[in-house]
Design goal:
The chain is α/β, with parallel strands linked by helices. It has 14 helices and ten strands. Bound molecules: adenosine-5'-triphosphate and magnesium ion.
């Protein structure tokens, strides 16, 4: 950049390049190197050139700039490859009580049991979240504590603020006080998930009914959105509205995984009605499970007990779609050993 006419503007621009396009190298042409030197350095300018510099000087400056650009690009590539890799699986449902917490806690336990230290569940039902109860935990730390660590950039502290479940699942419970939900922004949630994906291959997110702001913040980072419904007209038509809203926001047109809970209920709505209404094939159908209500009451997910149960079977198969090909679960949620069929 030739800064002779407006050095302030050029330095401001250089500073923006430095933060927003860190791979860019800026050479500044100036006739007042002493006056601008320190400010130029602070703005991330690589080198100063005199307007009358000869070809040799220009070549030298360009060669150094090229070297620096390559080093920056290499550093950038290596931090990107360590960057977000985890899958974020978020449930979306229009109504309460359709089985979000049941599905997400069982799915999270399945993933955690399949791959040690792989999974964290985040309870984004900020007011009435009951993930901790469903897992029979009495946590010491809650979502607001974790948000504090994220804000201060302290990833180690963040990990110590997760509660470990005996299945190996890490848990981030909803705030203990429902009023605390008001102080949490969707940007904070978004940032939290971004950090968690760098630490965990699977981030499982339970939500409140509908499209709360916090859920939208989570959907921003979601790789695997689960649309959950029962075979009821209100739940299904509500979900259709959610899908419409998300398509207006240009979020996920092709990545939905539709899960139907209580899928064996013969109440007049069929699986093909679900597919027609949502325009997506049903990926997982969970029949009614006799053990599910008791399991949530005692706080031991069926997946943890590895019992023979239709819910366990359906969710083990959903977990298998997320797990690597070499690590698969059998129909009771146990790790499948090579060559042995369940
Ligand atoms: N497939 C199933 N078979 C039998 N009972 C089920 C099944 N799925 C969920 N339930 C039961 O339905 C009730 C509601 O489930 P859950 O709490 O998971 O719903 P939710 O969508 O998280 O509700 P909320 O919106 O209140 O958070 C629980 O008692 C649970 O045990
Ligand atoms: Mg719930």
């Amino acid at each position: 950049m030739d800064s002779r006419r407006d050095p302030d503007l050029c330095l401001a621009l250089a500073a923006r390049f430095h933060t927003e396009h860190p791979d860019t190298v800026v050479l500044l042409i100036t006739d007042q190197p002493e006056a601008l030197g320190l400010r130029a350095m602070r703005a991330g300018v690589t080198d100063l050139l005199a307007p009358g510099a000869d070809l040799q000087e220009v070549n030298r400056a360009l060669a150094e700039a090229k070297q620096q650009a390559e080093a920056l690009a290499a550093r950038h590539a290596s931090t990107e490859s360590q960057g977000p890799t985890g899958r974020v699986i978020t449930v979306v449902a229009s109504k309460g009580g359709v089985g979000k917490t049941t599905v997400m806690t069982n799915l999270a336990v399945a993933l955690a049991q399949a791959v040690p230290n792989s999974t964290v569940i985040v309870d984004l039902d900020l007011q009435f979240g009951d993930v901790a109860t469903a897992l029979n935990l009495s946590p010491e730390h809650f979502l607001p504590d974790a948000l504090q660590s994220v804000a201060s950039g302290d990833t180690i502290a963040l990990k110590t603020r997760l509660t470990l479940h005996e299945s190996g699942l890490y848990v981030l419970p909803a705030p203990a006080d429902p009023a605390a939900a008001d102080g949490i922004t969707s940007a904070q949630i978004s940032q939290l998930l971004q950090v968690l994906t760098q630490e965990f291959p699977f981030v499982v997110v339970d939500t409140s009914p509908g499209l709360a702001d916090h859920t939208l913040g989570a959907l921003d980072h979601t790789t695997d959105p689960l649309l959950l419904t029962t075979l009821s007209v209100p739940a299904l038509s509500g979900l259709r509205k959610i899908v419409d809203t998300l398509s207006v926001l240009q979020m996920f047109t092709e990545r939905y995984h539709v899960v139907v809970n209580h899928a064996d209920a013969a109440d007049g709505v069929t699986l093909s009605d679900v597919e027609q209404t949502l325009g997506v094939l049903v990926g997982t159908a969970i029949p009614r499970s006799k053990g599910a209500p008791a399991s949530i009451n005692v706080g031991v997910p069926l997946m943890q007990s590895q019992t023979r149960d239709p819910l366990v079977r359906a969710l083990a198969s959903l977990a298998n779609r997320l797990l690597p090909a070499g690590v698969q679960l059998d129909r009771r949620g146990r790790l499948r050993t090579k060559g042995k069929k369940s």
